[in-house]
């Protein structure tokens, strides 16, 4: 990926890992380390040690993920909040409260989000119209017993 930028040019590699500065002097002829050494021999570089407390550039790169995990929240007005919930709900083909909430929770964490999703779905005319109610089949106990006997070959219907 970076070969285009590095091959044929001399560069300096700064590291806070002091044992890495001796990598060019290793004469390893077998195992995985030898294969790695062979692959980096195509580059013209010098390795210099820099103390970790001084290496602020590396600290900034390695800790950038912490900055993204901050508790920053964009305030949503009621119309925008409704549009966000509706978008998630429609993307999931109107699968209901739990799936919509879980999809939203994986991307954001907002106060009262579960209640907001529940209120939206309960007020959605389409969801109310097409809600699938689970009902038990209307088969009498006696009829079920006859069917069971028939399946086992004990009786005929």
Note down, in words, how this protein is organized.
- The protein is mainly α and 157 residues long.
- It has 2 domains: 2-58, no CATH class; 78-152, no CATH class.
- Helices cover 50% and strands 8% of the residues.
- It has 9 helices and 2 strands; from the N terminus they run αβαβααααααα.
- The chain has helices at 3-6, 31-40, 56-62, 64-68, 78-91, 97-107, 113-123, 125-129, 141-151, and strands spanning 10-15, 44-49.
- The chain has a two-stranded parallel sheet with strand order 1-2.
- Helix 5 crosses helix 7 (113-123).
- The longest helix is centred in the middle third of the chain and has 14 residues, at 78-91.
- The model has no long low-confidence stretch (mean pLDDT 78).
Brief synopsis:
Residues 77-132 form the Integrase zinc-binding domain. Helices cover 50% and strands 8% of the residues.
Q: Strands of the biggest beta sheet: in what spatial order? A: 1-2
Mean pLDDT: 78
Task: Please state the structural category.
Answer: mainly alpha
Proportion in helices: 40-55%
User: For the report, how would you describe the main beta sheet?
Assistant: 2 strands, parallel
How big is the Rg? 32 Å
Strand content: 5-15%
- How many domains in all? 2
Order of helices and strands, N to C? HEHEHHHHHHH
- N-to-C CA distance: 73 Å
What is the count of β-strands? 2
Gross geometry: elongated
Instruction: Pick out the low-confidence regions.
Output: none
State the helix count: 9
